[in-house]
C-alpha cells in the first residue's frame, strides 16, 4: 500500500509542475495589462436648482458600446474594428459621433434627485488630437439637468459596461469636496445641494482601503506576479519577511512622494521597468534555485524595485485625484489596502503551495522553478509590449 501511494505521488509531480506553470501563464495572459483602464474622472457640481457634470474619459468605447453589444461574441470583432476606426479618426469626427450617440449614452448614465431620474442635456464635447496610437486618448464632455424643488440630494452612476469612475463633488474651497471610486453599475453616495458630502475619517479610510486592495487583487496582475516572485525565492520566514518588508517600505515612500508631486516619472518609463523587475526576481529564483537564505543584495534589489512599484501605485491616486481634506486619509487607506492585497497573495500561495508541498524534496524543482519561469516569461512579454 505504501509503495502504491509513493508511485502515485511521483506520477503527479510533473503534472503538478505543468499545472502551476500553465495557471500562472494563463492568468497573466488573460490580464496582460498591468493596470486596468484608468477610471473616468467625473466632477459633479450640485447647485440649488441645477446639477452640472464634467466627464473626462475615453469617448471611443462609449460610442462603440452604444452601437454594438460588446458582450455578444458574434459582435466582438465588430466592436474592435469600430473602436480602431474611431481611435484613428480626427477629433471632430469623434465629437460628431459622440453627439449622435448621446441618446444611448445618456440612457446608460443615471443621475437622480432622490428617486426621480433626471433628463440629461449634453453640453460641450472635446476630443484631443491623434497622438501615440498605442496610448489611450481622453476626451471631455459635459451635461446638465434641472433639479426639482424638493431639495433632495443627487446620486449618480452608470452601467457596468462603461467601467469604473471616480466621482468628485466639487466644494467651495480646495480642502472641501468628496471623492469616491465607484465600480460601473453602482450609484454614488447622496450628494447634498450647494455643499459637498461631509464624511468622517472612517468612511474615507475604509473606501480607500478597498480601492488599494482591489488595485492588487484582482486588478494588479503585474504586482501579483512580482510578489509571487518573492514568494518562490524561499519559503523561509526570515527570507520572505526581509523581502516583503523592503518592498513595502520602498513603495510606501514613493507612493507618498509621487502623490504629493515631489517625485514624478512618466508611465512610459515606470511601466516597462516594473515589467523588468518581474523578470529579474523570477530569473534570480531560477539561477539561485539552491539558495535558501536571502542576501543583502537581493533585499537591496527588491527595495529598488519597490520604489518603482510605488510610482505605479501612485498613478492610480493621481488619475483619481483627492481633495486636500481627504488626501492624508485616502493615502493611508490606499496604502493599507495595497498591503492587505499583497499579504492575501502570499497567504493564498502559502496555503495552496507552500503548506502542502513546501517540505517535499521536489518542491523547488517541480513548483518554484517552473512557476518562476512562467513569471519571467510573462514579465518579458510585458516588457516588450510596453517598450514597443
UniProtKB/TrEMBL annotation:
Keywords: Membrane, Transmembrane, Transmembrane helix
Protein name from the UniProt record: HupE/UreJ family protein
Keyword Transmembrane helix: yes
Pfam families membership: HupE_UreJ_2
Transmembrane segments: 224-249, 255-283, 295-316, 336-355, 367-384
InterPro entries membership: Put_HupE_UreJ
Amino acid at each position: 500500500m505504501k509503495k502504491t501511494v509513493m508511485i502515485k505521488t511521483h506520477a503527479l509531480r510533473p503534472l503538478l509542475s505543468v499545472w502551476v506553470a500553465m495557471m500562472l501563464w494563463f492568468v497573466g495572459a488573460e490580464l496582460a495589462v498591468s493596470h486596468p483602464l484608468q477610471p473616468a474622472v467625473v466632477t459633479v457640481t450640485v447647485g440649488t436648482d441645477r446639477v452640472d457634470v464634467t466627464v473626462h474619459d475615453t469617448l471611443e468605447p462609449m460610442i462603440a458600446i452604444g452601437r454594438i453589444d460588446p458582450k455578444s461574441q458574434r459582435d466582438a470583432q465588430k466592436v474592435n474594428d469600430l473602436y480602431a476606426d474611431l481611435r484613428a479618426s480626427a477629433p471632430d469626427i469623434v465629437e460628431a459621433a459622440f453627439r449622435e450617440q448621446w441618446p444611448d449614452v445618456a440612457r446608460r448614465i443615471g443621475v437622480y434627485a432622490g428617486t426621480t431620474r433626471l433628463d440629461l442635456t449634453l453640453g460641450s464635447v472635446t476630443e484631443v488630437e491623434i497622438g501615440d496610437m498605442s496610448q489611450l486618448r481622453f476626451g471631455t464632455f459635459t451635461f446638465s439637468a434641472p433639479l426639482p424643488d424638493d431639495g433632495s440630494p443627487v446620486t449618480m452612476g452608470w452601467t457596468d459596461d462603461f467601467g469604473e469612475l471616480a466621482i468628485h463633488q466639487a466644494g467651495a474651497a480646495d480642502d472641501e469636496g468628496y471623492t469616491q471610486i465607484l465600480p460601473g453599475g453602482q450609484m454614488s453616495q447622496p450628494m447634498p445641494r450647494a455643499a459637498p458630502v461631509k464624511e468622517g475619517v472612517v468612511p474615507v479610510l475604509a473606501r480607500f482601503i478597498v480601492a488599494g486592495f482591489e488595485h492588487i487583487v484582482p486588478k494588479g496582475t503585474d504586482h501579483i506576479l512580482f510578489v509571487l516572485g518573492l514568494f518562490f525565492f524561499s519559503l523561509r520566514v526570515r527570507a520572505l519577511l526581509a523581502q516583503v518588508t523592503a518592498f513595502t517600505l520602498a513603495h510606501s515612500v514613493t507612493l507618498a512622494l509621487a502623490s504629493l508631486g515631489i517625485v514624478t516619472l512618466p508611465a512610459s518609463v515606470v511601466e516597462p521597468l516594473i515589467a523588468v523587475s518581474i523578470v529579474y526576481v523570477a530569473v534570480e529564483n531560477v539561477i539561485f534555485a539552491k539558495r535558501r537564505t536571502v542576501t543583502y543584495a537581493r533585499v537591496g534589489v527588491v527595495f529598488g524595485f519597490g520604489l518603482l512599484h510605488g510610482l505605479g501605485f501612485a498613478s492610480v491616486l493621481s488619475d483619481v485625484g483627492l481633495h486636500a481634506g481627504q488626501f492624508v486619509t485616502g493615502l493611508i487607506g490606499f496604502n493599507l489596502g495595497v498591503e492587505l492585497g499583497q499579504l492575501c497573495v502570499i497567504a493564498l500561495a502559502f496555503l495552496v503551495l507552500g503548506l502542502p508541498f513546501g517540505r517535499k524534496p521536489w518542491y523547488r524543482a517541480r513548483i518554484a522553478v517552473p512557476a518562476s519561469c512562467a513569471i519571467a516569461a510573462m514579465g518579458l512579454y510585458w516588457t516588450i509590449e510596453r517598450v514597443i
